[in-house]
Amino acid sequence: MTTDLEGLTALVTGGASGIGLATAHLLHARGADVAVLDIDPGGARGPLRGFVADVTDDRSVRSAVDSAADVLGGVDILVNNAGIGAAGTVEDNPDAQWHRVLDVNVLGVVRTTRAALPYLRRSTSASVVNTCSIAATAGLPHRALYSASKGAVLSLTLALAADHVREGIRVNCVNPGTVDTPWVGRLLTAAADPAAERAALEGRQPTGRLVSAEEVAAAIAYLASPAAGSVTGTALAVDGGIAGLRLRPEPNP
Ligand code: NAI
After folding, report:
1. What pLDDT digit, counting tens, does each position of 116-125 carry?
2. Which of 12, 134, 227, 231 is the right S-S partner for 24, CB 3.0 to 4.6 Å?
């Protein structure tokens, strides 16, 4: 394992589960000192430093970012990963749910980035990576609200990259396809036929399987690393080929 992140410090929001937890572990394994900011940081144990933070609450975010930066001695890498889902067409979700999901998924990125910027400006290897989604670039059925939130994250990533490039801060995002995390596990459990739902999700991906949290973490770690020093304002798809490939139906046996 390369130790290219030795001497760097990282904050990972939503880092107590799924993609965030895999990312926190990988950044640590590659040498970074890592703090996890989560409403329930209990899942982040061992070498990961847990801080309670609700990304919908500006005070909570500022206090956790300041405490984490204090303990770590600064912030070089910010991974904005906390997010929640929503299912339905535009007719299905009440306004309160729209406000809630946009608050977590979009304003959450705003609040954490805003709180971390003073620290990132002092870093000589500053990088922000947002967990976006394939839903930002492809029309998925029954994901109107979730897709709108991730479309905003994609645009915000580009705007942040432009605003801060001359301060030496890079900003990128990853666009995962369907990832095998506790979140997707919950979706499957709630489905009428979990096995059929899983098969449908796997079948949607040209690779024929779900993406692993570790595969998304590897992409995030790359974008966060000094090796990506010339990469800013990009969206890296980790989606089993959904975004770019157009396969013909399989021939009948
Ligand atoms: P997960 O549900 O396993 O983990 C999400 C974490 O975020 C949890 O630890 C949770 O406590 C935390 N969190 C939720 N609300 C929070 C808040 N208000 N403040 C602080 N922390 C909060 O989810 P998963 O699957 O790892 O998703 C992580 C990110 O990846 C999300 O942004 C999601 O939109 C994105 N994503 C997930 C995909 C998937 O198929 N699982 C696909 C594409 C993107």
Report:
1. 999 999 999 9
2. 12
